[in-house]
């Protein structure tokens, strides 16, 4: 029997907050991590964290924290305290079906996405979202050094004294 998604109760678990110890890590809605400057980064969806983990961006001593209901965690633990070396590849940052893996805009391929099926893997190639025309115009004005001019003249007021 393999415990896949529950935090293990070992000596390493002594530093894990009591509120996390018996919770199902697959029910985590969002994840946070602490960068090299000890600044909290996040929130990130489980799919994002899983992708970065599989790509090798997180070392075993990476400080992470789960957010079960959208709360911002105050404490963090080492990645290897929640996911052991033996099971991390199979269980790290996996989520139940009712938990969003990606932000809503990335959850499903859109009509502008090219989808390739290769070796039963779904690979999405998203085109960058287009900006609204007013934003493009504003960016062009800023690049050209054109400052916005006041279109209204001075306000004339009557003397009510």
TrEMBL record:
PROSITE patterns: GYF. Residues 28-80 form the GYF domain. InterPro entries: GYF, GYF-like_dom_sf. Residues 111-120 have a biased composition (Acidic residues). Residues 104-135 are annotated as: Disordered. Gene3D superfamilies: 3.30.1490.40. This is GYF domain-containing protein.
